[in-house]
Fold this protein.
Amino acid sequence: MNTNQEVPANLEQEIYKLKKHLNAVILAHYYQFPEIQDLADFVGDSLELSRKAAATDAKVIVFAGVHFMAETAKILSPHKQVLLPDLEAGCSLAEGCPADAFKLFKEQHPDHIVITYINSSAEVKALSDIICTSSSAEKIIRQLPESQPIIFAPDRNLGKYLMKKTGRDMVLWQGSCIVHETFNERKILELKTQHPGAKLIAHPECEESLLAEADFIGSTSGLLKHVCESSDKEFIVATEVGIIHQMQIHCPDKLFIPAPPNDASCSCNECPYMKLNTMEKLYLCMKNRSPEILINENLRQRALLPIQRMLEMSA
Ligand code: 13P
Ligand code: SF4
């Protein structure tokens, strides 16, 4: 007899069968393994995935991404079952901003409005006024009156980038992403000499000095759109390597070179949290309907408000 942890050989077919049986939708972030992206109903950035989660008719949302993404889906769609293949799939930004410390930080700046990156826990979202993603942050900040002081959390690199872009001074929480801080600028410059036509494209979670060298800066979907629309043929990609799968699908005639990490022997340009999700775990979470994201209703309602503001202000 099958135990709950046994997986069949024809995983892909079985996942499709379960998807139909559960009336489920599979949402995947660009940083997921290519085989997971290939069978997902929708692949997108954090903003697009939240919009899909809010709008879907499916009874079950299978979230191939990290915890804060699945939690946001549950906040937006409380009556749907939200499954995450591995509950340990966290995020260094969310983990580096505990709610109790954030509350104290916020209390030191009582007249500030709090804009928080979606890469945060539900508790931190509940302490915030507006949530943003990398693709919506600039638009949201520009809608606030010039005189309004702002706290931006938890990513200091994205925060600094937005300060430069919008000319707004903001108080920053000093968090960072372990993946986007790993790129080696000297090796990137060497790559540029080897590929003189290659353009450096980067996610705004990268460090300021790297962003200063970039030819284009954008969210994951912004980077994908840019490479498709650009007449350039070669790109050095400074974000998690998973995005290159979609770039190759959309632009098979172009060359995408992953930006090298500091340590050549590691896979540090892979997000260790995103990559916890595997086809096997995807199958098992659908078969067992677990791990499931559950959230206290009071917390959900408090976290919902700033997320709704994000959806309205980024429409
Ligand atoms: P995007 O919203 O650009 O997809 O970014 C999510 C993320 O976690 C980047 O590290
Ligand atoms: Fe978090 Fe960085 Fe992974 Fe994105 S790449 S989920 S910011 S740890």
Remarks:
- The radius of gyration is 20 Å.
- Residues 11-90+274-294 form a domain with the Rossmann fold fold (CATH 3.40.50.10800).
- DSSP finds 15 helices and twelve strands in the chain.
- The chain has three domains: 11-90+274-294, 93-176, 185-258.
